[in-house]
């Protein structure tokens, strides 16, 4: 069983990652806060795609980045 729609997850994951990076680079604290949560969403999407693609190193990377993004979100709370 290999649902083809899972192949397409990499594209929204990439877009969400770019949006997150744009927001995190903002001088506005609220945008930075949102950016870390967008990164968390991208981590989840990349993990889903990585599982589908058997990209175990990518999954390990995303788990680590997920933890760092939670830390960043916490440190940027108002």
Structural summary, described in words:
This protein has 78 residues and is an all-alpha fold. 77% of the residues lie in helices and 0% in strands. The chain has three helices and no strands. The chain has helices at residues 10-24, 29-53, 56-75. Helix 1 (10-24) packs antiparallel against helix 2 (29-53) and helix 2 (29-53) packs antiparallel against helix 3. The termini are far apart. The mean pLDDT is 93.
Tags for this entry?
mainly alpha; 3 helices
SSE blueprint and pairings:
Blueprint lengths: L9 H15 L4 H25 L2 H20 L3
**Discrete helix count:** 3
- Morphology call: elongated
Helix fraction, binned, reads over 70%
H/E element sequence: HHH
Main structural class: mainly alpha
The tally of strands reads 0
Largest sheet: none
Task: Give the overall average pLDDT.
Answer: 93
Distance between the termini: 45 Å
> Which stretches of 5+ consecutive residues score pLDDT under 50?
none
Radius of gyration: 13 Å
| Proportion in β-strands | under 5%
Brief account:
With 78 residues, the chain is mainly α.
